[in-house]
Design brief:
- It is globular, with a radius of gyration of 17 Å.
- It contains eight helices and two strands.
- With about 200 residues, it is mostly helical.
Length: about 200
C-alpha cells in the first residue's frame, strides 16, 4: 500500500531508475547501432561486429551513454520539468567513468529543445517518421519523444560514424522501434521503482 512506500528524493529516484533499467537499455543501444548497417539486423555480432565496421570501443561507449541519456530524459518527462531534470541528472551522474565526448548539460539542453519543437533537423532526418511509436498511454509530456530520440541519435552519432547508413533509407522504422523499446523499458522500470518508492516533489 502507498503509505508503506519509502519516500525518496528525485535524485534518489533517478539513481534507482538507472540501476533498474541500464542493462536492458545498453542491450537495446547495441542492437540499434547494429541495425544502422545493411547487414546488421540479426547478425548477433555485438561489439565485435561493430568494431569490424570501424567503430571504436570508445565510440561505442559514448553511443551507449548518449542512448541511455535519451531514454532516461524522455521517460522523466512524465514528471514536472524540475523533477524530471533532477531525476535525469542524478541517473546520469551514477556513471563514474567519464566518456570524452559526452556532455550532460549539452545533451540535456539539446533534447529539451528537440522535444519542445525548437530544433529542426536537416531535411533528410526531419522527414523520417514512425507513427506507430507514439507514447500516448504513458503520461509523457511529449508522446513523440522516442522517435525524436532516434532522430537525435542519428544526427549526433550515426551520420558521423556510419557511411551509407541504413536508417536514412529503409531502416528507420526498425531503428526507431529499438530506440522506443528502450524508452518502454525505462518507463516500466520507473513504474517498478514507484511501487516501492514514493517520489517527493
Amino acid at each position: 500500500m502507498a503509505f508503506f512506500k519509502k519516500r525518496v528524493t528525485p535524485e534518489q529516484f533517478g539513481e534507482l531508475l538507472v540501476k533498474s533499467a541500464h542493462a536492458n537499455i545498453a542491450a537495446d543501444a547495441g542492437r540499434s547501432l547494429e541495425m544502422s548497417f545493411d547487414d546488421g539486423p540479426g547478425s548477433g555480432g555485438g561489439i565485435q561486429f561493430l568494431e569490424r565496421k570501424g567503430i571504436s570501443v570508445s565510440a561505442i561507449r559514448f553511443y551507449i551513454r548518449l542512448f541511455t541519456h535519451c531514454a532516461i530524459q524522455a521517460a522523466s518527462t512524465r514528471f514536472d520539468e524540475s523533477t524530471g531534470q533532477a531525476v535525469t541528472q542524478a541517473a546520469m551522474g551514477t556513471f563514474s567513468s567519464n566518456i570524452g565526448e559526452y556532455d550532460y548539460a549539452r545533451t540535456y539542453n539539446e533534447l529539451a529543445s528537440i522535444y519542445a519543437g525548437r530544433h529542426r533537423f536537416t531535411n533528410k532526418i526531419e522527414i523520417l517518421s514512425n507513427p506507430q511509436r507514439q507514447f500516448t498511454y504513458s503520461n509523457l509530456r511529449y508522446p513523440n519523444a522516442g522517435v525524436l530520440n532516434a532522430k537525435y541519435l542519428i544526427e549526433t552519432f550515426v551520420i558521423s560514424n556510419i557511411s551509407n547508413s541504413n536508417v536514412l533509407r529503409g531502416g528507420f522504422q526498425v531503428f526507431s522501434g529499438t530506440v522506443c523499446q528502450a524508452l518502454d523499458v525505462t518507463l516500466m522500470a520507473s513504474t517498478h521503482v514507484s511501487k516501492s518508492a514514493k517520489l517527493n516533489r
